[in-house]
Amino acid sequence: MPRFGMAIDLSACVGCAACAVACKLENEVPPGVGRLWIRLEEYGTFPNLGMEYRPEQCLQCDDPPCVPVCPTGASHVNDDGVVLVDAETCIACGACIAACPYDARYFDPRGFVSKCTFCEHRLAVGRVPACVETCPTVARTFGDLDDPGSDVSRAIRAARRVDVLKPEQGTHPKLVYLNAPASFGLHKEGVLP
Amino acid sequence: MEALESLVNYGSGVDVTSADALEAACQVVAALYRSPGEGLRDDLYSGRLGAVSDALAVWAGVDAPRAPHSPPAWDRLRAAYVGLFVSRAGGVPAPPYVGLVHDRELLGPRVRRLRAELAGLGIRPRAEWHELPDHLAAVAEAVDLLMEQGRVAAATTLAVNHLVPWFDRFAEAVAQHDESGFYGELTTFLHTVLSEVAP
Amino acid sequence: MKLERREFLKLSAASVGAMMLAPDAAAVKLPNPLARAPEAWYRGQVSTVLSYCENCFWKCGVRAYVSDGRVWKVDGYAENPLSRGRLCPRGQGAVAQTYDPDRLKRPLVRVEGSARGEGKYREASWDEALSIVAAGMLSIKERYGSESMAFFAHGSGDSWFGDYLPAAWATPNVGKPSVSLCTSPRETASQWTFGRGIGSPEPVDWENTDYIVLIGHHIGEDTHNTQLQNFSQALKRGARLVVVDPRFSVAASKADRWLPIKPGTDTALLLAWLNVLVSEERYDKRYVDANTVGFERLASHVAPFTPEWAAGITDLAAADIRAVARELAGHAPRAVLPPGRHTVWYGNDTQRMRALYLVNALLGNYGVPGGFYLAQPPYIGEYPHPDFPLAPASGGCGGASAAAEQTIDLNYRQAVDQGVFFAKTTAIQELIPAMISGEPYRVAGLVAYGTNLFHSIPDVARTKQALQKLDLYVAIDVLPMDHVMWADVILPEATYLERYDDLAEVSGKTPFIELRQPAVEPLWDTKPGWWIARELGLRLGLDAYFDWPDIEAYLDTRLRTIGSSLAKAKPQGTIVQGGRPYLTDWEARHLNPFATPSGKIELYSQTFADAGFAPLPVYEPPEEPPAGSYRLLYGRSPVHSFAKTQNNWLLMEMHGNNAVWLNRSEARRLGLSTGDYVWLENEQGVREGPVAVFATERLRADCVYVVHGFGHRAPDMRIANGRGVSDVALMSRYRLDPISGGAGMHVTFVKLIPGAPRPRLPRLEKLAERSV
Lengths: 193, 199, 772
Description:
The complex is a heterotrimer.
Chain A lengths: L3 E6 L8 H9 L9 E10 L2 E10 L17 E3 L5 E3 L9 H5 L6 E3 L3 E3 L5 H4 L6 H5 L5 E5 L6 H8 L3 E2 L11 E4 L15
Parallel strand pairs in A: 1-10
Antiparallel strand pairs in A: 1-8, 2-3, 4-5, 6-7, 9-10
Chain B lengths: L1 H7 L9 H15 L5 H8 L2 H13 L13 H13 L13 H4 L5 H12 L2 E3 L10 H13 L3 H26 L4 H16 L2
Helix pairs in contact in B: 2-4, 2-8, 2-10, 8-9, 9-10
Chain C lengths: L18 E3 L25 E6 L8 E7 L2 E7 L12 H5 L1 H4 L9 E3 L10 E3 L2 H19 L4 E5 L4 H12 L4 E2 L1 H18 L16 E5 L9 H12 L3 E5 L5 H4 L3 E3 L6 H14 L5 H7 E2 L1 H8 L4 H8 L3 H14 L3 E2 L12 H14 L70 H5 L7 E5 L3 H4 L3 H10 L2 E6 L11 E4 L11 E3 L5 E3 L14 H11 L11 H10 L5 H7 L1 E3 L6 H6 L12 E2 L3 H5 L19 E6 L13 H6 L4 E5 H7 L6 E6 L4 E10 L6 E5 L27 E2 L6 E2 L4 E6 L9 H5 L4
Parallel strand pairs in C: 7-8, 7-14, 9-10, 9-13, 10-11, 12-20, 14-15, 15-16, 21-25, 22-24
Antiparallel strand pairs in C: 2-3, 3-4, 5-6, 5-16, 17-18, 18-19, 21-28, 23-24, 23-28, 26-27
Helix pairs in contact in C: 3-17, 4-17, 5-13, 8-11, 8-12, 8-13, 11-12
């Protein structure tokens, strides 16, 4: 079985949000909530400046803290390593939202918790997630992390550096960031160096 | 005019059911919220619309609206209609689509459900009806059609599921933005009536 | 006793009911009412239709996904050379416009006795509305002549309302905002330098270039899809990038060098690069000898323009200026300065673009891999029609005829702006004065198709004054924009997902033709532009030009001229042809691409000299902002298209407001922080706002910056009301480029007035509910 993962090349990302818009439509995400958002950080002082554009979404952790806390089992991992929520059995208690260190989950107004699913309906027919497909700068790669020939594996190998968000949480995300522009790696949320 | 008189003479012991009131209210809704044409003009200036709204007021135990008895000039009414329900620089204040509040979008899942329900009940929009299937006037007319066939339960269910729950917000928006006063007053009144029918 | 069924209200025979009984209606699967999450759209029966996008003017090929009579999603498709299977955020989000409850739905006629701008309309049938328009136009023709009608047009339908119909009707007063409010300096300069225009997409050979210099060209915030793809591919390949911009743009953040140039001094920088290339003999001698004229005069002209001279003017280091010139030369001919698109800055922009082209020419990159390729239009026949009385003359960003000899038809008066500037294309903003003054002759009527009159043309007060004086003002559009609700007659167009249009003919290395076809039926009573043009044409006595029975016949006839057909083209979407991208391809066929008077690239322009303009680019210092004021600069958001997407809730969620960018030190000096609200006031005392301050390191201290398209101020504007500030509203003046007719719009100076109240704005998602 494949172990699906994604890499986002921050040197290529321009923060255009094509991925975020595509996600909303592909997955009928209601207004006011989102599975995918873009964080922009500027750093430095004029004229020595840098910018980091960082799309964020569920990182599809290998050790997802959102699954063990679910009282009904609605939050689960499928055979391909994709973390999902079964809307029918979800009771919208919010425990998983609190447990996620990345703010990846949200309440769908129709009464269940939702989040990025790696567009598993697309994976089922051999297509890549909508965000990956549309990205005009080809910043996103996707595929089986256990297959060295997959797009994502090759991108990770070729990268200058690979970072994950909040590694200290021990979640082992399967969405990684490549080529972070600042020398220290990823910006912390809301903190400029 | 026998039936109207019956309704008007409610106080003298005629047993007007809430089903009848619902039917009457939906007829008014169907006439009022479609694009103002000869039909509405006729019903307004002949006094028929006024008579029915008065009768409904008696049934509901509230004051009758004055608007149908002193409607604005026809052109002003048409302009008010466009500004409230059709097109206005920067946003229609009261889009008359029953599916919108639930789906937060046009032609969403609620409308699909409504269309399927209507099809199951044997009702569909005419080809000349260049509007969305969940337009308020269309849904109200569907209720009326079902009543006409004597399918009271189906009509009531349709109204309760799709028409009544959203009408309060609709009435508030119309009242807030109607400069003519006509639609505002009538919509508030209809909201009161519908609340009595399906509390 | 239950009352019998009776008719409470007898609907008069004139009005038809909405619903009918149809017991045999096809059984539809009833969705499970207990299901929490309704079935996702992709679980149903999904069909796909190929078309091209309309959310900007790039025309990316899209595949629309249709289920249950509704479009749910669009994506690019791989075979299309523009989208190549990918879409920018505007392309992805365009679906939301089709299902916008605020869309124009039926023709509207201004209520008699009401004033223009009051916004009082009644509905009308198409027949009535079109008859009113036709009668109005014919009356104007009779009283003042057909030239008294003006047409402003932009978008795919500008083929009908900017070219076809006005040419058949016989008026030269046609304005496309894409010309004088955008590209005309670069087109005019290109025509008189290379004998060819630039067009769209810009013919930059990204695939083969190794060194890129962008002058104020904010790729990345400008999300023209293919260009963004090509740009990022070039960087991935290792191409070096220099960005010249007063602002640290997205592109600057990817650059090897950012030159934070003083606004208005780019020509000095370009002249200094010419100086280095010439004085250090780093230009391509062989190329210059073979393909250009005027080198000697250029060489002596640029002799004084040293990097040291330019450094003082541009506020850049001479060493950096010199280094970039040397690096350009070192990578030549695979070194390029792309032209950008919106080039109307200071009113002397044709000269700046000339300077930019001359640098390219000295690098020997024009018509050579890694520089500019030679774009060819596709071949396809016209639908046969009688000769137009007047040739379409407005130009456009998709391929200009800026300097082509205009066949002057002496039976008709020239456009009212001819003689105001050198180029023969029209300048939309210069067509307006005649509406007010009646000089040189009266323009009494206007049809505005897809052109946002109050957010694209500077001097909004003048535009409103002109509208008040017209006998007839017709707006054809999709949304009730501010200017639409001033018209006498409003004709609602169907959105791109609901209609056919004429074929898109795209020039390129491998030119191609794109088909637009409907994915779904038009909602409400909206109609495609071709239908509106045709119905109007028939009522105007122009039957001979509209003898095709329907658009399918029109398209099929055209496609058959190249051995295709509508049936064949529908599943293909795009038909790609061969091109002649490089000089070698032309030389092999003994053809000369340079349609200049000399037949060569004209470094020195005798034509300009003869017309009284500088034959070689000169630097003119811009006006300085008065003390306490800042130059107002503007640009794009990646998720918005001009001022047309601020009612699209999906895109507004991504970027729902603009702010005024201010250098952080300046902010500190003024006591302002990010999030403080200010007004912006220009020199004429026009005040706009409130707008939030964004204090940033990413901008020079002498200018402020806003994203264009916000500050819609219409009553009850649900999504965009009170959000941000309109740059155009602050442009009480512009500087006319006397060569191209372009309206220079970087000439507004503003003061920041602190203490503005924070606007109370409804949360975007509440508005996005689009419900009561």
